[in-house]
Amino acid sequence: MPTSVFVFNVLFVSRDNALRSQLAEVCLRHLGQGRFKAYSCGAPGCVAESPSDWVFPTLKTAGMRADGLRCKSWTEFTRIGAPRMDFVIGLDEGTFERHPSWPGQPETALWAIAAVDARKLGPQKTGLETLNTLHALRRRIELLVSLAARGARASELRHDLRDMAHL
């Protein structure tokens, strides 16, 4: 008799949903081995019109497909009928304290990742910092995927998820 595999819904939140959360969404989709559905969003009123120009080339360099990316507000995930999240991971402290009440009371964690400011850095440094951001996210996401592969439930991953902030 086949065993059913539980699929975790994970939402990554950053202020403008233009770079960090987009990278995290695609990275988890890529590494999740069918055990995860990844989403991303930003704070209402702060959401960018489109993903950063650095998202697509960075993901392409990493061999990750970025199909269907768009910037979204967290209001899409608090509405009736929205997917219920198992985990909500904030990527910046400024919006983490302002998160809404998420339907279903998912496990939450803050993985503070510094924003990449292309206006201050210039093209070469922005590209490098974007790759560094993806690398930092990937390390944490790989650990999350490996822990989930052991069959842990969301509540069992709570402390591990929060501890990953310190990687």
Return residue spans where pLDDT drops below 50 for at least 5 consecutive residues. none
In oligomeric terms, what are we looking at? Answer: single chain
As a percent range, the share of helical residues equals: 25-40%
Order of helix and strand elements from N to C terminus: EHEHEHEHHH
Which range does the strand content fall in?
Answer: 5-15%
Would you identify the CATH architecture? 3-Layer(aba) Sandwich
Helix/sheet category: alpha/beta
At the fourth CATH level, what is the homologous superfamily?
Answer: Response regulator
CATH class: Alpha Beta
Keywords:
167 residues; alpha/beta; Rossmann fold; four-stranded parallel β-sheet; 6 helices; 4 strands; 12% strand; globular
Q: How does the SSE layout of this entry go?
A:
Blueprint: E1 8-13, H1 20-31, E2 36-41, H2 55-61, E3 87-90, H3 93-96, E4 107-110, H4 118-121, H5 123-149, H6 154-163
Parallel strand pairs: 1-2, 1-3, 3-4
Helix pairs in contact: 1-5
Structure description:
With about 170 residues, the chain is an alpha/beta fold. It has a single domain, classed as Rossmann fold. It is built from 6 helices and 4 strands; from the N terminus they run βαβαβαβααα. A 4-stranded parallel beta sheet has the order 2-1-3-4. α3 links the parallel β3 and β4. α1 (about 20-30) crosses α5 (about 125-150). The termini are far apart.
